[in-house]
Amino acid sequence: MADQTSVSIRNLDLSFGAVEVLKDLNLDIGAGEFLVLLGSSGCGKSTLLNCIAGLLEINAGQIHINGRNVTWEEPSARGIGMVFQSYALYPQMTVRGNLSFGLRNARVPKAEIARRVKEAAEILQIEPLLDRKPAALSGGQRQRVAIGRALVRHVDVFLFDEPLSNLDAKLRADLRVELKRLHDRLGNTMIYVTHDQIEAMTLADRIAIMRGGRIMQLASPGEIYNRPANRYVADFIGSPSMNFYEGHLTQDAQVFESGDFRVPLAAYPFDSAQPGGRPVTLGIRPEHVLTGPMAKTAPVAMGATVEMVEPMGSDTLVWARVAGLPLRLRMDGQAAVAPGDQLDIGLDLARAALFDAKTELRL
Amino acid sequence: MADLALSGPAGPRPKNRFSRANIFIYGTLLLVSVYYLLPLYVMVVTSLKGMPEIRLGNIFSPPVDITFEPWIKAWSSACTGLNCDGLSRGFWNSVRITIPSVILSIAVASVNGYALANWRFRGADLFFTILIFGAFIPYQVMIWPIVILLREMGLYTTLTGLVLVHTIFGMPILTLLFRNYFTSLPEELFKAARVDGAGFWGIYFRIMLPMSLPIFVVAMILQVTGIWNDFLFGVVYTKPDTYPMTVQLNNIVNSVQGVKEYNVNMAATLLTGLVPLIIYFVSGKLFVRGIAAGAVKG
Ligand SMILES: Nc1ncnc2c1ncn2[C@@H]1O[C@H](COP(=O)(O)OP(=O)(O)OP(=O)(O)O)[C@@H](O)[C@H]1O
Ligand SMILES: [Mg+2]
């Protein structure tokens, strides 16, 4: 990530009639950064992207792109290119026509248009398709053309609105890798909307997790996964999702208690010294529950009863019960476990998360 | 288990063409078709008979002596009042009314619909509500005010005036038609075109128009038949020189002097109905497709 900012959003408000969708939103995106907007359906990701593109008139705030205040600029004057979920190719134009439409509108000389179309087609490997109509393309090819349409315009900022979500799983994985390569090659700023965690984790330099029109956490994928800033983010990221236990801290803040379930917190990396004796939530990811020989030596070790086993090939998801509480844990794909088995488990508290029960913020 | 697949029904289920349900359905359809086609049949055969044959009174019998005399007379020499040049004058008047009215009303309404569907400008909803409300005001209420308006503009009894009236009265329903169609097109296409730097007219002509052929055909059929068949506005806002075909047809059929020439009347009526009929035949398929493609969707 470069130190120079590429897109800055200040105090952005947007509402549709009486419905407030974005509230006082601030966001800075560095030049060349790959930023992913991640959130559940209806949280305002597309709306934010449309605001940046200038397709929606905002109610308050400012948008800067490349140091220029573009709040009142037309979409085409903002130096952005956009790729839509439905591809949005112009059906009556050939691929070549689709790619060159923006350049023709900008009255770019013919020779230059031809050169740029050729260049983009080469990068995206769609040269043989240039004279076809969109109806004669497969989904993956259409999405390449849609990306090409942004590419030819030589813009600084690419906006993607769930570009891969209409493709099947295999193609999605392929195009994901290609997008990453494209980003490495071009070095543009990219803002990418998705509700697919894998896409977010693999592509992003930083992820902004959104909920109800607000950004809940903005951090690198690793940080989001390992140190979620609040319970929502912790729950949202990871599949299967985190185990949560409602309980409280003991007076000395050394132990988490929930009935018979007692977890010493000596290994937990507190952000700051915490007063004890108050309600908190403990979160542990299924993959951070240790089993086998590692469980015995773990600082926090206990026994669990297996209730259900879901083999998933590469690993096995085990539903167990510990001290009367449900626990999901992830084991090796070859693990031989059956319902009713007793398991020794250990908790890796260095990677666990504690949240204040009221504010839901990380402790 | 394997043998089970070999016994019992296999492949397409046999159909009985002469089942009771089929006989009932096709019988009803046939009956209704005959019922609708009978008047047309009577008109065609009568128009091809001479007057002596008509006086025999067998309206269903086919013509013994086929003559095209009534058609020629209806077109070029039937009398209405002082003019004796048949329907031809009315035909050309109607052509001069219909073509500009259709083009003008569709051009304006499609731009209206496009602006309402895609460029949600301030007050768009109010504008749309008023326009739709206009569609429910009975024509009769507005006849007299429009006479005054046209007179003040110096357009009363002119073809231009009538074209203007047709354009205005076609506006609510056509705008609704176009707005709904454009709303049904994917919004992302419009957004993509804006990012690509196309403006209001650029998007209209280069993105929207090429995708909207079916709805333009629907609008054209509605307008051509509506305006061609119009009688009320024609009789109120024009004078004998500029009467459209329908008004002239009425004057021929209802002329009180002399004997009633049924064959000429039938021929004149068929001639008048020919234009909408041809339009339907030529573009019927596109019409249905346009209706299916969102013309009637909310
Ligand atoms: N034109 C509109 N009029 C009114 N409300 C709208 C409009 N567009 C979006 N909304 C509302 O704004 C909220 C955010 O919508 P948005 O499309 O940004 O969600 P999203 O995060 O992109 O969801 P998804 O993942 O399903 O695409 C939603 O609650 C939606 O109902
Ligand atoms: Mg969306």
What can you see in these coordinates?
- The complex is a heterodimer of chains A (363) and B (298).
- Chain A has helices spanning 45-53, 95-105, 110-124, 139-151, 169-186, 197-203, 221-226, 231-236, 293-297; strands spanning 5-16, 19-30, 34-39, 60-65, 68-69, 80-83, 157-161, 189-194, 206-211, 214-219, 243-249, 255-258, 261-264, 279-284, 289-291, 300-311, 315-322, 325-332, 342-347, 353-356.
- Chain A has 363 residues and is α+β, with helices and mostly antiparallel strands.
- Chain B is mainly α.
- In chain B, α7 runs antiparallel to α10 (213-229) and α10 runs antiparallel to α13 (262-295).
- Residues 294-298 of chain B have low confidence and may be disordered.
- Classes of the chains: A alpha+beta (363), B mainly alpha (298).
- At the A-B interface, β6 and α2 of A face α8 and α9 of B.
- The complex binds adenosine-5'-triphosphate and magnesium ion.
- Adenosine-5'-triphosphate is lined by residues 16, 19, 21, 39, 41-47, 195 of chain A.
- Adenosine-5'-triphosphate binds next to β2 and α1 of chain A.
Q: In CATH, what is the class of the largest domain in chain B?
A: Mainly Alpha
Oligomer: heterodimer
Strand order of the largest sheet of chain A: 6-7-8-3-9-10
Give the fraction of residues assigned to helices of chain B.
over 70%
- Which ligands appear in the coordinates? adenosine-5'-triphosphate, magnesium ion
CATH class of the largest domain in chain A: Alpha Beta
- Looking at CATH, the homologous superfamily of the largest domain in chain A is P-loop containing nucleotide triphosphate hydrolases
Through-space gap between termini of chain A: 28 Å
Are there runs of chain B of 5+ residues with pLDDT below 50, and where? 294-298
List the helices and strands and how they pair.
The complex is a heterodimer of chains A (363) and B (298).
Chain A: E1 5-16, E2 19-30, E3 34-39, H1 45-53, E4 60-65, E5 68-69, E6 80-83, H2 95-105, H3 110-124, H4 139-151, E7 157-161, H5 169-186, E8 189-194, H6 197-203, E9 206-211, E10 214-219, H7 221-226, H8 231-236, E11 243-249, E12 255-258, E13 261-264, E14 279-284, E15 289-291, H9 293-297, E16 300-311, E17 315-322, E18 325-332, E19 342-347, E20 353-356
Parallel strand pairs in A: 3-8, 3-9, 6-7, 7-8
Antiparallel strand pairs in A: 1-2, 1-4, 4-5, 9-10, 11-12, 11-14, 12-13, 14-20, 15-19, 16-17, 16-19, 17-18
Chain B: H1 20-47, H2 51-55, H3 69-76, H4 88-118, H5 124-135, H6 139-153, H7 159-184, H8 187-195, H9 200-208, H10 213-229, H11 232-237, H12 245-253, H13 262-295
Helix pairs in contact in B: 1-13, 3-13, 4-7, 4-10, 4-12, 5-7, 7-10, 10-13, 12-13
Keywords (chain B): Membrane, Transmembrane, Transmembrane helix, Transport
Family (chain B): Belongs to the binding-protein-dependent transport system permease family.
Main location (chain B): membrane
